[in-house]
Amino acid sequence: MNKKLLIKNAKAIVSCDATDRVYWNSDILINGPEIIKIGPNLTDESAEVIRADGKFVYPGLINTHHHFFQTFVRNLVTIDYPNMLVVEWLDKIYRIFQKIDSEVIYYSSLTAMADLIKHGCTCAFDHQYCYTRASGKEPVDRQMEAAKLLGLRYHAGRGTNTLPRSEGSTIPENMLETTDEYLKDCQRLIERYHDPDPFSMQQIVMAPCQPINCYPDTFRETVRMARDYGVRMHTHLGEGENNIMLERYHMRSLDWCEEIGFIGEDVWYAHNWEVLPQEYERLARYGSGVSHCPGPAVLGGFPILDIRAMQDAGVLISLGCDGSATNDSSSLLDSLRVAFMMQAYHTKERGGCVSAYDMLKTATVNGAKTLGRADLGSLEAGKAADLFMIDTEQLELTGTLHDPGNLLARTGVTGPVWMTMCNGKIIYQDGELIGIDEKALAEKGEEVCSRVLRKDSEAFRGFVF
Questions:
Q1: Which end of the chain is less enclosed by CB atoms within 10 A, N or C?
Q2: How far apart are CA 164 and CA 226, in angstroms?
Q3: At residue 463, does pLDDT exceed 90?
Q4: Contact call for residues 67 and 322 (beta carbons, < 8 A)
Q5: Residues near 442 by Cβ (< 8 Å), separated by ≥ 6?
Q6: CA–CA dist 257, 38 (Å, integer)
Q7: All residues at 6 or more sequence positions from 451 whose CB lies less than 8 Å from its CB, including other chains
Q8: Where are the alpha helices (DSSP H) in 301-347?
Q9: Is 80 contained in some domain?
């Protein structure tokens, strides 16, 4: 029997629905994973009541690009992303990545997922392309294990790198796979985990890492298999590789994707800060989305996406944290704030900045569309009960509460939320991950990080653990 919950007397409920409705002093009735009704003075004697006095309620944030395996390569002055060129950074960071094993995957994923959950994220996509001799083919399985433990809705991107250094890639030999290896494991993962039904907690995405580090056939076969199975596709694009693509294939990255067929409503790209205004229309026409990752864009000194112009052209923009090696944070609330500030700076002279509320919809409604989830992204009857709450009865928020839609990004609400609920279950509340021995997991994660990655590594030399 489904458990009923009644969230009672929320100060405001920001629905992010098609009418941008905000419910004041209202309730949410939930049955199992599903929202049944929103409005004032709701009653149901069979429901467990959750008091939400003084709370603002928002749809759960949806992260559309990340690399969980990078979470144990953070806060390193020895590999300082802001002070390096991308090529230099890649050369140094891959020396560490190739040591990653199954235990690092599990505990680094738990770390990133916990950070996401504590900051209001209820559905996360991760681009897992790190397959080493030590990790084997287990990374996605370990991530599914971690997501189930924490209660997070998880879309796993099964990535790969197939092109060797001798043919122009940046990937060490012991992190390469063949296209056949990759396809065989994609089939295994899809048949084991992919659930296309409403309120699904796990899905698989086929996601070769990027065009310059894979054979063209890897992408062609991805298109064939993904469309046979009805799963989505993802890759890095427009992230500094266009000159290489022009030299290698005599065409820009988007042209190459179009020729290969790696484009359409079932495809989205990460970053794309090299996208040209004349390419906006093509992205919109095909329905391919772009995951904007503001943290690494600022840290790397990359061009700022013109989100207003892209959205005006009809391009679907969502929000991602990106990997912790280039962000050092898995807080999507922080990314929301940074993205809004970037757009304000970028468009100041010509006007038309994306509002703080529109940026919230980028991280909710647009994230759901990007992942193909009609059941997520807004708070309304029939949608999944994925939400988070903040406590407004705090002195630092005094004077801001008249506009809950703009509040988060505009005023910089980036700390841990009061509650996160996923699929109708509370998974984090008042500083605690529900049903989790966080201290024990943190201690074990530190031990794994030190044993596997820090030992005998130049990147960690001179530090005390």
A1: N
A2: 24
A3: no
A4: yes
A5: none
A6: 43
A7: none
A8: 307-312, 332-346
A9: yes
**Residue-level length of the chain:** 465
Q: What is the DSSP string of 142-178?
A: HHHHHHHHHT-EEEEEE------GGGT----GGG---
Looking at this protein, which amino acid is placed at residue 163? L
Q: What is the largest CA-CA distance in the chain?
A: 68
Interacting residues of 247 by C-beta distance below 8 A, sequence separation 6+: none
Query: Which residue type is seen at 224?
Result: R
In this structure, what token pair is assigned to residue 170? 């940046």
Report d(CA 193, CA 141) in Å as an integer: 9
- Model confidence band, residue 46 (pLDDT cutoffs 50, 70, 90): very high
As a whole number of angstroms, the distance between CA 62 and CA 287 comes to 19
- pLDDT at position 353, please? 85
What DSSP letter does each residue of 96-111 carry, written as one string?
A: HHTT--HHHHHHHHHH
Q: Which domain holds residue 22?
A: 4-60+378-433
Residue 363 in any domain: the answer is: yes
CATH number at residue 162: 3.20.20.140
Query: Please, which pLDDT band fits residue 320 given cuts at 50, 70 and 90?
Result: very high
- Predicted pLDDT at 432: 98
- Compute the Cα dihedral for 129, 135, 141, 142 and give only its sign: negative
Contacts of 365 (CB under 8 A, 6+ apart): 16, 59, 377, 378
Residue 137, number of CB atoms within 10 A of its CB: 16
Q: What is the CATH number of the domain that holds 10?
A: 2.30.40.10
Does residue 84 form part of some domain?
yes
Q: Which residues pair with 30 in a beta bridge?
A: 5, 35
Task: Quote the tokens at residue 446.
Answer: 């530190």
Location of structure tokens 């995951």: 291
